[in-house]
Structure formats: structure tokens, C-alpha cells
Write a structure and sequence with these properties.
This protein is mainly beta. The protein has two domains: 69-197, Immunoglobulins (Immunoglobulin-like), CATH 2.60.40.10; 216-387, Galactose-binding domain-like (Jelly Rolls, Sandwich), CATH 2.60.120.260. It contains two helices and 22 strands. The strands form five sheets. Strands 13, 14, 16, 19, 20 and 22 form a six-stranded antiparallel β-sheet that branches. Strands 3, 6, 8, 10 and 11 form a five-stranded mixed β-sheet that branches. It has a five-stranded antiparallel β-sheet with strand order 12-15-21-17-18, with no helix packed on it. The chain starts with 6 loop residues before the first strand and ends with a strand.
Length: 389
Amino acid sequence: MSHTAAKPKQTESGTTTFKVFNRPVHWIAGLVFCSLLALLLLSVGLTQSASVSSAQQTGENPMVPATGAQIGDRVWLDANSDGIQDAGEAGMVGITVTLHLSGTGVITVTATDAAGIYTFTNMISGTYAVEFHRPIGYVFSPQDQGGDDALDSDADPVTGLTPYFELADGAVDDTRDAGLMVRIPPDKIYLPIVFRTIELPALSNGGFEWQDQGWSLINQGLPAGIVNQSSDPSVPLGSYSALLGRPDYPCSASGVPLGYAAVEQAYSVPQVRRPVVLRFKYVIMSQDASTSAQYDRFEVFVTPQNGAASLVFSDGNMVNQGLGCNVWRRVPGPQNPRNGQTTGWAEAVVNLDSYKGQTVTFSFRNYSRYDGWYNTYTYLDDVRVVFGD
């Protein structure tokens, strides 16, 4: 059927009228339905577009439901250098923050917003550490000041890493903060304050969280390695430690090889006026007595680049009674307390002032001596060079 325009018609009274061809009722209803459907689809599209735009502006992924755990919180300018977030102290914008998963390494990175806030969302349960990247011209605030963990600075002043912590499914942990202080030019302050802003070169991977990176593993009869101890909550730093020796040697005349296992690292001791010390933590397990240098011991040596090795520290089981294949004694332990401590990890301090201005090698060794009957092995962790005052 052809469709023509309406045609005028002259009536007897002289007026003009128009005649419109009649359309079927179902044709008109269909036209109305199509128009309403088009309006509905346009409305839904605009609503979805607005929702996606809103999610992008808040940093969320509109394709991933926000049902996982969350880690955050804030990097702030510590104006009074007390290590505590005080009212009125501003947030630091654009600070890079990386997230470490134990046993995996860095898994994601973000940056703080205008208020200093950062957030990692949709995280699975696990053991994490947050690393804050210090901008030029700033130093980290003192760590763990005050009694409120939500207001202190958790970043290590040297590495910028927080201690590793557990995150459960669906948990929200918004207590991982970092304070930053302006580094004051030395020519504009008094000498004692200059000392507090000096930073020592960091020892590489002193917590062994990056396996043997930065270390040389020495196997002179006994094996040296890096082990995961995430099941031990007393581990000083992260989840990994160095293991010098082996726990499972048989107790027999030739069961334990003679020799030593060691981890070593070179370090340039700076020429500064303040005392400089080497700090480290350790646990010794032994069937032998260490009452003489001819028996099993844990020993630390410092060797200058063009000099001889010097024994600067030694320790071991000091009970020389009741030794046997089934008798293990721990250091620190009930029979071998160290600084009043019988559990956890012992800590030692070695003064490095005589090595200032020199490049030296630190060598941490576990020795098996005298015979192959009794076994001794040592765990080492949290090795660092710091000011001694």
C-alpha cells in the first residue's frame, strides 16, 4: 500500500479541510512501544556510565567486587619530629608505597593522595610488609613512638619497611603509617642535631628477606643457607633467617663434618664522629660445649680489605656437663641466659670504631671442631650497622 500526503478538500461552505489516511491501530501501538523502549535503554546506559566513572575516580576496579581484605593508611609530615601524628600535621601527596608478600616479594604499588592516604584493596590473607619510598630531602620519623599504633610511624628509619604482619580474609588494617621529617641542612643547625640526621649506609638485606641477595654463602665442611621460618613468631625481621650448619646430622664418631658454614658481606665503614656498631641477633642449638676455642662455636670475624681477619665475637653452649646425643642446649635458654633472656633471640653488639674509613668483610661462622660426635648449628637474623649512642 502506498503512503501519500494528506490532501486538502474544499467544502461547500468554502472552508478547506485535510483528510489523513487511516492507519491500523496495531501500527500506531508499535510505534509508541519502540519509542518508549529507546528512552528506557538510553536511561540505563547513562546510569551505568555514571557508575563506572564514579568507580574510576575512587581508584576501584569496577570489574572486581570489593570483598577482599584491605591495607592502608597515611604518610604525613612530622612537623615536630616526635613520630606521632598530631592534629594539624599535613599528609604527604605522591609518596610511592609498595606492598610485599612474604615468600613472593613486591606484588603491587600505589601512591598517596592529597591527604597522604594510600590503600591496597581486595587483598587475600597472608603475611605482608609495607615499604614507603622516602623522597629526597626527607628522613623517616622515629619508629613506634607513643602508645597508639594507629598514630605512630611504622617505617624502619633506614629501610622504609614495616615489620611483616598477618592479614586475615576480609580484615581492614589501616594502621600502617609513615612519618617524614624535613632533612635540615647542616650549616643551619647546631652540631648535635646534625648528628641525628646523618644516615649510615645500610647493610644489604640484613633480614635475609631477599634470600641470599647481598650475601656470600660459604660452605667449608658445613652448609650455609637461607630458610623460611614463618611459623616461628619470634623471628626478629620478616620470615627468613640464615642457617649455618645442619640440624639433622647423626650423632656418631664421624656423623658431623668438621669445618664451618658462613655468610659474609663487604661494608664500607663511614668516617664519622659518632660511635658505629654492628648489631645482629642469633640462636644457637648445640649438643657440644663451647667452653674452649677447640670446640664448636658461633664466631664473628671482621676482615679489613688489606688486613687480617679479627675474631670480634663468639658464643655457644657454656654448660660442659651432661653432654649427650639426645641433649640439646639452646642459646639463649634456661641454662644459657643472655642479658637475662632465656627465650627468643640473643642480640650482640660489636664496636666498629677501629675500622672507620675502611672497607671490611663481616663473616658470621658456625664451627664444628674437635670430633664428629656432637652437632652445633646457628640461626642469624636482623644484621645491621647503626650508631652506637
